[in-house]
Write a sequence for this structure.
């Protein structure tokens, strides 16, 4: 059963959307000849909502962690987040690299992968990292599903990840960062916070580790949320997962900039 969460309150965009629909209805009732204008207003409104869902860093559909809170930023903290695992070939090597630099990261794990490799999730927590919710199946059509489907998907991942790691997730990241207006009330019901990112290197698409590193280094500043992948990682021309090539120089850059890495739940606390 879902955990008790917070009371959901629609954001400004959804409240405005309800107003647009009501005004369009009233306009058509008062004067039928206004229906083309009313229809155009509703279509434009739905287009704006769709755009907000396709923009991972948007706050228009509800609260979204695109940066760490102001207090964490003042402490010169950043968060390293790693998605799409656990991967039995890549994740252990990522954990070892993080250990060498005494860095703690947030792993957004896929439930079905965690069920296959629960020992990796337990190892993440044992080493001081956080395990968070990246859906049960990481389906590409997640953003076009309805509220019941979203609730089942997120609740299944909550239960799977809690069993695998011993740590119940506090944060959710949508597959590819895409969502729709149904997600925010589901997150409120489950007591989850939505998190996206400040900077990403596109390390699932780009096999050039140097290019990925430059993209990430350009966004290294206090409060940043950095996105990398241990699952679905692109490979270099030598067949090495990009994350393994990028992490050592990236962690050195973080240290040289006087920044300290924390997990999202540490920043929340």
């Amino acid at each position: 059963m879902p955990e008790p969460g917070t009371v959901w309150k629609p954001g400004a965009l959804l409240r405005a959307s309800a107003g647009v629909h009501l005004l369009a209805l009233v306009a058509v009732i008062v004067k039928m000849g206004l229906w083309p204008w009313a229809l155009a207003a509703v279509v434009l409104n739905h287009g704006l909502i769709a755009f907000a869902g396709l923009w991972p860093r948007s706050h228009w559909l509800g609260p979204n962690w695109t940066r760490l809170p102001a207090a964490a930023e003042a402490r010169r903290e950043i968060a390293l987040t790693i998605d799409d695992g656990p991967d039995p070939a890549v994740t252990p090597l990522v954990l070892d690299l993080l250990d060498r630099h005494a860095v703690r990261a947030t792993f957004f794990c896929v439930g079905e992968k965690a069920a296959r490799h629960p020992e990796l999730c337990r190892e993440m927590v044992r080493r001081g990292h956080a395990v968070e919710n990246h859906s049960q199946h990481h389906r590409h059509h997640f953003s076009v599903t309805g509220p019941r489907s979203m609730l089942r998907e997120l609740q299944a991942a909550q239960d799977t990840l809690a069993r695998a790691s011993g740590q119940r997730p506090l944060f959710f990241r949508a597959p590819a960062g895409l969502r729709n207006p149904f997600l925010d009330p589901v997150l409120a019901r489950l007591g989850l916070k939505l998190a996206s990112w400040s900077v990403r290197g596109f390390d699932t698409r780009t096999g050039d580790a140097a290019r990925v590193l430059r993209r990430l280094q350009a966004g290294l500043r206090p409060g940043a949320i950095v996105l990398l992948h241990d699952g679905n990682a692109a490979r270099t021309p030598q067949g090495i997962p990009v994350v393994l090539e990028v992490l050592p120089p990236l962690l050195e850059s973080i240290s040289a900039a006087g920044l300290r890495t924390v997990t999202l739940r540490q920043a929340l606390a």
About this structure: Residues 35-54 form the longest helix (20 residues). The mean pLDDT is 91. The beta strands are 77-85, 106-109, 130-133, 171-172, 193-194, 199-200, 225-229, 260-261. The radius of gyration is 20 Å.
